[in-house]
User: Fold RlpA-like protein double-psi beta-barrel domain-containing protein from Panicum hallii.
Amino acid sequence: MSTASLLALALAGLMLVTFPGLCAGTAAAHRPAAKCQPSGSLEGPSTGHVCGECCKPGHVYPTYRCSPPVTASTRAVMTLNNFEDGGDGGDPSECDGKYHLNTEPVVALSTGWYNHGKRCGRQIRINAKGRSVLAKVVDECDTLHGCDKPHAFQPPCPHNIVDASQAVWNALGITGDEVGDYPITWSDA
Assistant:
């Protein structure tokens, strides 16, 4: 093999290693977008606030500035939130400064999906167990802050949470022991 052929072959190999997407049909060309990684951490308080879901003293919680991309079928974890005055949601909803009845189909979205309030008042479609329900975005499930009174002494939310009222759970037919961290898909309605 000539020097020119070896040089061309080496250059082609270097190009494929440097730019794997150039080779159509490779796994690298079809690699999913980068996942949302923690952007920092938050340490729990030095003394504990007594509640089942409160921050634990000395525990370190990851924080996120991002959420996975929204698609026609965005994977998420649905959690239960009480949006009423005195409920586990803490302060009134970010979008409208109000509390909401648990009979209303409302949700809080992780910070990245909440998108600085750009989804406030909009409907999202939540799918689980072969059912679908529309719910109104009224709050942020804060992924950057927590373990303090404004956040009901709870840790920051994970980056993929749809925190839903009891009405949403009921509409999806999820009851009893199934209520908790439940896998769902959602999309903008």
